[in-house]
Design brief:
- By secondary structure, the chain is α/β, with parallel strands linked by helices.
- It has three domains: 135 residues, P-loop containing nucleotide triphosphate hydrolases (Rossmann fold, 3-Layer(aba) Sandwich), CATH 3.40.50.300; 74 residues; 55 residues.
- The chain has 13 helices and seven strands.
- The strands form two sheets. It has a five-stranded parallel β-sheet, with helices on both faces. Strands 6-7 form a two-stranded antiparallel ribbon.
- Helix 8 packs parallel to helix 10.
- It is flat.
């Protein structure tokens, strides 16, 4: 069934499948691996899939922050401990460092993989416990967005790790996601006609810009209506997507700039500096004109 000029595709996400195979190969060699990419690119999905595939040889931690709570839960579940065991070990009084040491002992000789999602939530100042994990026999598969602070964290503790950067999906790969959503056996997406189907596909491909989670969210919104029509795509789907773009109003900054320029104007007048007085007046006028002509368009960013 044709959906867009790109056509339906049945092959798997080629790049993602290659990444997955490469990651599994590295983990079997006890090589630490870090997945890098922007939010919504599919890092968590990849981590969960690999964790499921490794089964009992891996443990997935959704967020290692706060570390004490996350690592304690991991220790209990990996070791299969009960309340009586924990009381005997005086587990409630353990520090993060103690939990890490015992967790390492628990995983020794098992070729165990600790899967750490959302490493970007950890600050460098509270990440000392990562050093022991990174230098232990426990293999780590992690994910982060790699902003400036995450880069410092990764360079500090995981400089030996293999870094794999997830790139936005191609149009064909986004179409495959749409196909899976449209043909969902439990809740398929229905269209009023072929034109609506065609337009829906093009809109999702264009608007998602290769980010899987955006494509899925747009499909989920379409699933909420009985029949997807051209009007729905234009008025509901496209409007909702545009609403997800948050604007930063620079009015306060412009007003501050006008105030400073005004101060310079008075200084110039008080000092008898006619040149400074004229320049300051000109800048103030320019700032006001810019604010009037560019309402809410100064800067914009994705939500």
């Amino acid at each position: 069934m044709a959906l867009t000029p790109f056509g339906w595709v049945d092959e798997p996400h080629t790049k993602r499948q290659k990444h997955k195979k490469e990651i599994l190969r590295l983990l079997r060699r006890k090589q630490n691996v870090m997945l890098i990419g922007p939010g919504g690119i599919g890092k968590t999905t990849m981590l969960r899939e690999i964790s499921d595939e490794l089964a009992e040889s891996a443990y997935y931690i959704e967020s290692p922050n706060p570390p004490k709570s996350a690592l304690k839960t991991a220790f209990i579940e990996i070791g299969g401990f009960h309340d009586d065991d924990l009381k005997e070990m005086k587990f409630s009084s353990w520090t993060v460092q103690q939990v890490v040491k015992e967790l390492i002992k628990l995983c020794e000789g098992k070729n165990f993989v600790l899967v750490l999602d959302s490493l970007d939530r950890i600050t460098v100042s509270s990440s000392d416990w990562l050093k022991e994990l990174a230098e232990s026999e426990v293999t780590i598969l992690g994910a982060a967005r790699k902003t400036k602070e995450e880069k410092e964290l990764l360079d500090r503790f995981f400089w030996t790790a293999k870094t794999i950067t997830l790139q936005p999906l191609s149009d064909r790969e986004i179409l495959e996601i749409i196909k899976a959503q449209v043909n969902d056996s439990l809740s398929p997406i229905r269209f009023k006609d072929k034109n609506a189907e065609h337009f829906f596909g093009k809109t999702v491909v264009t608007s998602s810009k290769g980010i899987p989670i955006v494509a899925v969210q747009m499909c989920q919104k379409a699933r909420g209506t009985k029949q997807v029509s051209l009007t729905f795509v234009r008025e509901e789907l496209m409007t909702a997507h545009k609403a997800s773009v948050k604007y930063i109003d620079l009015t306060p900054l412009i007003l501050i700039a006008v105030g400073l320029i005004g101060a310079l104007r008075y200084i110039g007048r008080g000092m008898g500096n006619q040149e400074l007085y004229i320049i300051a007046g000109t800048l103030a006028a320019a700032a006001i004109i810019i604010r009037v002509l560019m309402p809410r368009r100064s800067r914009q960013r994705k939500a």
